[in-house]
């Protein structure tokens, strides 16, 4: 095989190529959130895809209308976990926001309590919820949602 030289691009190192011409490279802009932003409820956040309405993108409205979720024990845990993740991301850039920090810890506590209650009622949620006494019964029927965990 013959050594081939890379084809020379007519654009400079600070430019990208467009069909037929060169253009300056784009720099994305990401707006910083203000401190103490308005927050949606956990359930609204899970359905919307963000805890913060200021970050909600308008094109998601059509999707949101189609993804209404029933308020079940499993969905409530999902909403709590989602809110914990969103608040954790927010607190990475706003560590001094005491209101968000308190909400973060209260959601973690609610999530832990809810998970324990769910496991006692419906069984393990995760493979790691199994104990040595259970053996490896993860794939045995009925699954948690078959026993009413999603009702």
List the helices and strands and how they pair.
Elements: E1 15-18, E2 21-24, H1 42-48, H2 61-66, H3 73-93, H4 98-122
Antiparallel strand pairs: 1-2
Question: What ranges have pLDDT less than 50 throughout 5 or more consecutive residues?
Answer: none
C-alpha end-to-end distance: 65 Å
Range of strand content: 5-15%
Estimated radius of gyration: 24 Å
Strand sequence of the main sheet, in spatial order?
1-2
Give the mean pLDDT: 76
What is the 3D shape? Answer: elongated
Number of strands: 2
Give the biggest sheet: 2 strands, antiparallel
Helix/strand/pairing category? mainly alpha
Helices and strands, in order, run as: EEHHHH
Helical percentage = 25-40%
How many helical elements? 4
Any descriptors?
151 residues, mainly alpha, two-stranded antiparallel ribbon, 4 helices, elongated
């Amino acid at each position: 095989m013959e050594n081939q030289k890379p084809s020379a691009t007519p654009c400079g190192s600070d430019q990208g190529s467009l069909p037929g011409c060169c253009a300056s490279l784009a720099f994305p802009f990401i707006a910083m959130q203000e401190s103490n932003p308005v927050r949606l409820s956990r359930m609204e956040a899970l359905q919307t895809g963000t805890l913060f309405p200021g970050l909600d993108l308008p094109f998601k409205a059509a999707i949101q209308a189609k993804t209404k979720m029933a308020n079940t024990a499993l969905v409530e845990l999902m909403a709590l976990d989602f809110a914990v993740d969103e608040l954790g991301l927010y607190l990475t850039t706003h560590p001094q926001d005491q209101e968000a920090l308190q909400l973060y810890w209260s959601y973690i506590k609610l999530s832990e309590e809810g998970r324990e209650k769910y496991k006692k009622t419906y069984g393990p949620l995760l493979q790691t919820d199994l104990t040595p006494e259970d053996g490896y019964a993860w794939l045995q029927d009925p699954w948690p949602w078959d026993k009413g965990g999603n009702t």
